[in-house]
Write a structure and sequence with these properties.
With 408 residues, the chain is of the alpha+beta class. It has 3 domains: 147 residues, GAF domain (Beta-Lactamase), CATH 3.30.450; 150 residues, Reverse transcriptase/Diguanylate cyclase domain (Alpha-Beta Plaits); 83 residues, PucR C-terminal helix-turn-helix domain (Arc Repressor Mutant, subunit A). It is built from 16 helices and 10 strands.
């Protein structure tokens, strides 16, 4: 198989099906970590390994362990030759041919070994040219994957404009036409942020991983990376649940390597004209909820709206010292001088909506002790915690103080 056998628009799925047709069998294309990127149609002869790999997007651990013991992965890394992997009756696994996908000379920043192409035998033997087909397909897959990992600069510029990173007044129909994207129809905009990664090789590698797997999830996905974030556009998606599940799976998959990866999802975006605004909303979520995101958290704009708006209210308060209540300073000064924790008692009391017994239990003190502390807070600040306005003001000021303590 030569490059001329394919059109310029061929993607990994198209390549997988073409290899299956010409080599006789069922094809899966995987990355270097055995995650499935694309696959051909399956027949009734598909074995459990193929079914589980496609459904789980990666090979079952037992079989991967066997392949490691047989030295298959070492062979994929060492040679360009097609490797014949025998059947494994104990695991109900059929014979396979596999070839590594290696970066072509001058292949940009992509790693040397990009992945592998697997050909499972079906009810009939492989064709006579199966080995030759796989070799040719590996070269073509390398070019496709490298193109995905190292997007051309002109295309990258258009993508940046679509996401609203470079200037305003973007001609969305023209960009959509150049990128072969539908202008109308719902889209999803995703943002990924990792607190422990900054601009550099690790961040670039994370961006490449997300780009590659986004392309596997949806062939028409578009990915853009900035110094600290990675954004993905999924045009014409079909299911909110499928998008959210895929993002959660992707974040979980990166957890051993990226301990604090977070993701925010804007869904649905009416059409491509709304991509830039959705990307800005995703940034609002990632900016405003950084301190409250647990590890591996994925959230949508709807789920995080309260946290985002409260965070921005606190930003405004922080930026205007004249809105800082001096009465609170007296409370913090008292706590410092007397090694007390009246402000913590007040926070807990407010969090429990004035329920003294619940608040006292949370603080592990007697209810009468808490009642005394609340009276002292009122005496020191002059605030009446029976007044809804005073309670709201105190909650905001205490939240502002808490944020300041965390940032030190």
């Amino acid at each position: 198989m030569t490059a001329e056998a394919l059109t310029a628009d061929t993607d990994l799925y198209g390549l997988a099906q073409l290899v299956a047709d010409q080599a006789g069998g069922m094809v899966s294309i995987e990355d270097q970590a055995s995650h499935v990127l694309a696959y051909s149609a399956s027949g009734e002869a598909a074995d459990p390994l193929r079914i589980q790999s496609i459904l789980g997007r990666e090979g079952p651990r037992d079989y991967l362990r066997v392949l490691r013991e047989w030295g298959v992965f070492d062979s994929i890394r060492r040679t360009d030759e097609v490797i014949d992997v025998p059947a494994h009756p104990e695991l109900n696994i059929k014979r396979r041919l596999v070839v590594g996908i290696r970066r072509a000379p001058g292949g940009g920043t992509a790693p040397d070994v990009l992945g592998s192409i697997w050909l499972q035998q079906g009810d009939t033997p492989f064709t006579a040219e199966a080995t030759q087909v796989l070799r040719g397909a590996a070269a073509i897959a390398a070019r496709i994957i490298t193109r995905i990992l190292d997007a051309p600069s002109t295309e990258a510029l258009m993508i940046q404009r679509l996401f609203g990173v470079r200037g305003e007044g973007v001609d969305v129909p023209s960009i959509a036409g150049a990128l072969n994207l539908p202008v109308t129809g719902p889209a999803a905009v995703l943002g990924f942020a990792a607190a422990d990664l900054r601009a550099g090789p690790d961040h670039a590698n994370l961006a490449s991983v997300i780009r590659l797997h986004a392309g596997s999830f949806r062939r028409d996905s578009v990915t853009m990376a900035t110094a600290e974030r990675v954004y993905v556009l999924l045009p014409g998606y079909r299911s909110d649940h499928a998008v959210t599940a895929w993002v959660r799976h992707l974040v979980d998959r990166q957890e051993p390597r990226v301990a604090t990866l977070r993701a925010a999802i804007a869904i649905p975006v009416a059409d491509l004209h709304g991509v830039a605004a959705a990307r800005a909303e995703v940034d609002r979520v990632l900016d405003s909820t950084a301190a409250t995101f647990p590890k591996g958290r994925v959230t949508t704009l709807a789920e995080s709206r309260t946290a985002v708006l409260l965070g921005e209210v606190l930003d405004l308060l922080h930026a205007h010292p004249d809105l800082h209540d001096p009465r609170l300073r007296a409370l913090f000064d008292y706590d410092r001088r007397h090694a007390a924790n009246l402000h913590e008692s007040a926070e807990t009391y407010l969090r429990e909506h004035g329920d003294v017994r619940r608040a006292a239990a949370a603080l592990r003190v007697h209810p009468n002790t808490l009642r005394y502390r609340i009276r002292r807070v009122e005496d020191i600040t002059g605030l009446a915690l029976t007044d809804p306005s005073d309670r709201l003001l105190l909650e905001l000021q205490l939240a502002l103080h808490r944020r300041g303590q965390r940032s030190r």
